[in-house]
Amino acid sequence: MKKKVVVTGMGVISPIGKSVEEFSAALKEGKSGIGKITQFDTTGFDVTIAGEVKDFEASKWFDNRAARKMARFTQFAAAAATEALEQAGLLGEAGEDGKKKIKCVPESAGIVIGNGIGGFEIVTESFRKLFDIGPKRMLPLTVPLMINNEAAANIAILYGLEGPAFTQVTACASGTDALGQALDLIRSGRCEVVVSGGSEACITQFSIGGFQMLKALSTKRCNDPAKASRPFDADRDGFVLGEGAGVLVLESEEHAKKRGAKILAELAGYGASCDAYHITSPEPSGIGGGRAIKMALQDAELKPEEVQYYNAHGTSTEINDPTETKMIKYAFGDHAQKMKVSSIKSMTGHCVAGSGGIEAVSCVLAIREGFYPPTINLDNPDPACDLDYVPNKAQYGEISAAASGSLGFGGHNGVVVFKKYSQEGK
């Protein structure tokens, strides 16, 4: 018998909400978080829009001394983790040093955070100083601020998590794969509690410029940003870069019940595969990603027809959306036409590694609150994308199981499955 793994806390920092409550309301409203870029001067760029997290103040979640030692992606992850741990009831009272510590055996608590790119704003600023002034004027903390593992490490330091502290780097699949790794850590008995999800903050000149050169970003609607991200729509012209973090507290069911925790959902399954095809494009048949879905369903001990909602990667690119449609059809068969599918990237933009964590939170909310998040801007459906993508407005209904898929450059495919929690099993 597999050890049951449950969700007891969630946290979100996103372009459409800086808390789970704000995020849930925005999903139901179909609110867009995409606007003109404010983090740098976009003069000379074809792309001038993104899904930014506005008015973010790290001191709302933890003290400024800690925040000064964190890049933006780490601050997002730490803020989301703080909200998740507070909701889970796992943070004790502040000690004499003003710090809160996790309320469980510290060495039984691990952390796995997905991050694809690291502290790009730190890299950009340090390179500027290096080339303009010289190496002695670089930021003193350049290296510990920029490297990918610092989100997991800083959260562990903040709250005394002494178990494994891992960073998952599989491009846009990183957040989802982190949750899968966390699931395995608890099932194996290595941990009783794992804080897991994904985070990204790469709305910088370097990142926008790089994605722009790949011809991956939307440029047609820079004067109407809210309409730019339009997954599965025939008039889509690329994705919109976003930023943010989504973090979940996962526990063994036994541990959660023993301490009287409120259980939000069950993380029931995970599947992963690689297309082994191309560095930026998915394999056109969708079979690689479809295999990951099938593995996740098998791991969750669910038949395809038992899943009511699929959160799609849904990037709004010419190649991804029809390929992902094939992927879903391959995995779910005839049930694909009856199931609700949507892409919240239409509202948040593509938050890279943060997407897997943020979208996992949306699945748990969908199950708990009985709604299907919409795909906004779906005004002219692509004939090659012929599933029910919940166009433009949220819909409501009973959801007992939801899956979320993420596809990353390099052919990485990751899928997680959540179930409504039941003590009786299925």
Automatic annotation (TrEMBL):
The keyword Lipid metabolism applies. Keywords: Acyltransferase, Fatty acid biosynthesis, Fatty acid metabolism, Lipid biosynthesis, Lipid metabolism, Transferase. The active site is at residue 172. It catalyses: a fatty acyl-[ACP] + malonyl-[ACP] + H(+) = a 3-oxoacyl-[ACP] + holo-[ACP] + CO2; (9Z)-hexadecenoyl-[ACP] + malonyl-[ACP] + H(+) = 3-oxo-(11Z)-octadecenoyl-[ACP] + holo-[ACP] + CO2. One of its GO terms (cellular component) is cytosol. InterPro entries: 3-oxoacyl-ACP_synth-2 (IPR017568), Beta-ketoacyl_synthase (IPR000794), Ketoacyl_synth_C (IPR014031), Ketoacyl_synth_N (IPR014030), PKS_Beta-ketoAc_synthase_dom (IPR020841), Thiolase-like (IPR016039). PROSITE patterns: KS3_2 (PS52004). Residues 2-420 form the Ketosynthase family 3 (KS3) domain. GO terms for molecular function: 3-oxoacyl-[acyl-carrier-protein] synthase activity. Pfam families: ketoacyl-synt, Ketoacyl-synt_C. Pathway: Lipid metabolism; fatty acid biosynthesis. The keyword Lipid biosynthesis applies. Transmembrane segments: none annotated. GO terms for biological process: fatty acid elongation. Its EC number is 2.3.1.179. Belongs to the thiolase-like superfamily. Beta-ketoacyl-ACP synthases family. Involved in the type II fatty acid elongation cycle. Catalyzes the elongation of a wide range of acyl-ACP by the addition of two carbons from malonyl-ACP to an acyl acceptor. Can efficiently catalyze the conversion of palmitoleoyl-ACP (cis-hexadec-9-enoyl-ACP) to cis-vaccenoyl-ACP (cis-octadec-11-enoyl-ACP), an essential step in the thermal regulation of fatty acid composition. This is 3-oxoacyl-[acyl-carrier-protein] synthase 2. It comes from Leadbettera azotonutricia (strain ATCC BAA-888 / DSM 13862 / ZAS-9). The lineage of its organism: Bacteria, Pseudomonadati, Spirochaetota, Spirochaetia, Spirochaetales. The gene is fabF.
